[in-house]
Amino acid sequence: MRLKSIISQLSDRRWRRFYFQRRFMRPRLRQWVTSRIATSRAEPAPGPPDPRAEALRDVGLVNLGPLLTPQQCEEIRRYFQQKDVLDHYRPDWPPFSPDGEGRHPACHVAAHLDPDVIAAPYLLALANDPRIIDMLHHYFGCRPVISFLTAWWSYPTGEGPQQAESFHRDVDDWSFIKLFVYLTDVGAESGPHVYVRSSAGSTSLDEIKRYPDEEVFEAFGRQSVAVQIAKAGSAFIENTFGLHKGTPVERGTRLMFQAVYSLNPLPYGPRRPIAPFDDHLAGDAAARWLNRVYLG
């Protein structure tokens, strides 16, 4: 199975591009490459400069407030509770119901399948919200692509922080932004997301690895750390090249949706579109280009 995975990666140029750009961690170089790519696409953003795009460049985090109503979140939760999830850290573990008893006792996160995510009520339309897309057009200097969509549950385990529950940087593309939407209320014990403001442009702690809290606090100061506590339906958009983490859930479960926008398709998304565009969205050529990873 491991050999098959290696062969698959070698034959997929998305993985080659992914590993190449990870060799260059200096923010100024990454910004220079991004500007060259944007210029080559000759797609100036419409309208005046967007202050949210400027805040995203400076701070790396923009809170968008509530984008879904409590009723919409309840509908989404009911939908996903009927769909199985996978523990990607235990690929041999069988799929299980999010609220069922089939979860491994150490499983802290479990994700839904791609077809179930794109068919979920409201979420694909939210990822295509013109207010978000226009802001990101200003941010990137060109139209991005929706390169990854996912929804996952987080669970308490008693195991302490696991995987992305320690501070780290994502290095997915030369430039990329992630939209996070809470689909359950998230308080201090519900696994809130944590971000270090202005760390995306810093060269401190720029190795691709996990960092202990104290090392991050020492480098950036505790005052730079933003803990995202919010009600269901609340959203924030973030440059996760900056240091960030989830926190372990202590009580209940947390359901979150994420859309990733990038310059290039990422290897985490499907290799080919998984559904017809017209079955899920209405739009012009620009909308089809934006959604081309998932919809054909």
Q: What report would you give on this structure?
A:
The chain is of the alpha+beta class and 296 residues long. It has one domain: q2cbj1_9rhob like domain (Jelly Rolls, Sandwich). It is 30% helix and 18% strand. It has ten helices and ten strands. It has helices at residues 2-10, 13-21, 27-41, 51-58, 70-81, 114-118, 123-127, 130-140, 213-220, 285-290; strands spanning 61-66, 85-86, 109-112, 145-154, 176-182, 193-196, 225-228, 234-238, 244-245, 254-262. The strands form two sheets. It has a seven-stranded antiparallel β-sheet with strand order 1-8-5-10-4-3-2. The protein has a three-stranded antiparallel β-sheet with strand order 7-6-9, covered by helices on one side.
Quick recap:
This protein is an alpha+beta fold and 296 residues long.
